[in-house]
Amino acid sequence: MDKSLKVGRGLDLSIKGGAEWSTPQEIPAATVALIPDDFPGFLPKLEVKEGDKVIAGSPLMYDKNHEEIKLTSPVAGTVSSVIRGERRKIERVIITAEGNESKTFTVDSTAASIAQALKESGLWAEMRQRPYDIVPLPDREPRDIFVTAFDSSPLAPDFNEELRGKQKEITAGIKALASLTKGKVYVSTRPEDSFEIPAEAVHCIVEGPHPSGNAGVQASLIAPINKGETVWTLSIATVARIGALCLTGKRDYSTVVAVTGPEIVNPYYAETVQGAAVKTLLGGHLPSDGKHLRIISGNILTGTKINEDGYLRFPYTQVTVMAEGDDVDEFMGWASLSPSKMSVSRSFPFSFFKKRFSPDARILGGRRAMIMSGEYDKVMPMDIMPEYLLKAIGAHDIDMMEKLGIYEVAPEDFALCEYVDPSKTEIQKAVREGLDWLRKEIE
């Protein structure tokens, strides 16, 4: 039986540069990069060195704490470089693509075989565990699994169109997930989505503004997480990859990327592979007016700033380009009443007009102490008090953090709070650091 869920609080940002769906342009990846920081909780140990030959699906690194969990190569080719940072931290492994050879994984219908195949293929690392928003710990069985089949973030790609024709893989993936839990698998879609949800899952039809597409938000409103419980979250795209692995024994690394943003010339969809170089996606779609640009792997709320020679970051299937704003000479600066300026305040003269804006990356104000203004509550649909939770995180008060719902949240759930925050606080960073600290203290 379908469940209906109406998300009342949130905010949809009206921004220019959305990509209208069309047949994706196929763009082969000359180089790809695997970045372990994209997988919270994963402590990488290299299995390859520069110059090694690899095939698609072969392991590049494993988790020091759980050696059976691996990250694998999206393409066949040669490990061209291993980039390290401070204290020899692995920042990324770059592979130069060559050939089409791929690894075959052994998998049958049993839960043990499916779990082993997911760990070896790298798909295990594409899921997230609540609490802590980390790669799932293999020794904990999830109470429930939550799958989101849509992305509500600004200028987000359309999963309904991207995955059209992959119904068999989606069905097989949901059945595989159902074997990994004694609880329920919840799949949330928009009312207009055309995915067929098998009987092994509970179909939830979700309406409302962003962040209604966040799996964690859906989980908190459908079946909240209590202390001592574990749930998994993932996207429908990962479900389709799990299904493909179960049906064929091959890992599917292909992905459809929406190239979007106010500064993109002719936004479009591209078909490439996970971790592909962004430069090839942006070729011919950047303006030539000399404006300083910010390139983001992901959306403007939660994405990661990268250079033009950067790479697609997991879990994003979107690239956004906006103006940096550091070369703007604007009358009155942050206090300007320009009609081109976007604001969530209804006291702003142009907030009533239905138009799409071209914002830049400026903060437009100074950082200051957190103001208990109640603004966060207007855009936070979860049943928590975000301001008080953030204060508890800053004070490292474990008891208060637990009482205020720390086990339910992830940094992405606070992205809109960060956007509307009059104090310009880096809220997502604070939540990430708080989750990591809490896990270290408790476990």
Question: Explain this structure to me?
Answer:
The protein has helices at 111-121, 159-162, 167-178, 215-222, 236-248, 278-282, 375-379, 386-395, 398-403, 415-420, 427-442, and strands at 3-6, 25-26, 31-34, 44-46, 53-54, 59-63, 70-72, 77-84, 90-97, 128-130, 144-148, 185-189, 201-207, 231-235, 254-260, 268-273, 293-297, 304-306, 318-323. By secondary structure, the protein is of the alpha/beta class. Among the domains are: 256-329, Ubiquitin-like (UB roll) (Roll); 375-442, no CATH class.
Terminal Cα span:
38 Å
Largest sheet: 6 strands, mixed
Structural class: alpha/beta
Average pLDDT, rounded to a whole number, is 93
Approximate shape: globular
Percent range of helical residues: 10-25%
CATH architecture of the domain at 256-329: Roll
At CATH level 3, the topology of the domain at 256-329 is Ubiquitin-like (UB roll)
- Ranges where pLDDT stays below 50 over 5 or more residues in a row are none
Give the SSE string: EEEEEEEEEHEEHHEEHEHEEHEEEHHHHH
> What top-tier CATH class of the domain at 256-329 fits best?
Alpha Beta
Can you count the helices? 11
User: Which band does the percent of strand residues land in?
Assistant: 15-25%
- Strand runs, count: 19
Strand order of the largest sheet: 1-13-12-11-14-10
Q: Give Rg in angstroms.
A: 21 Å
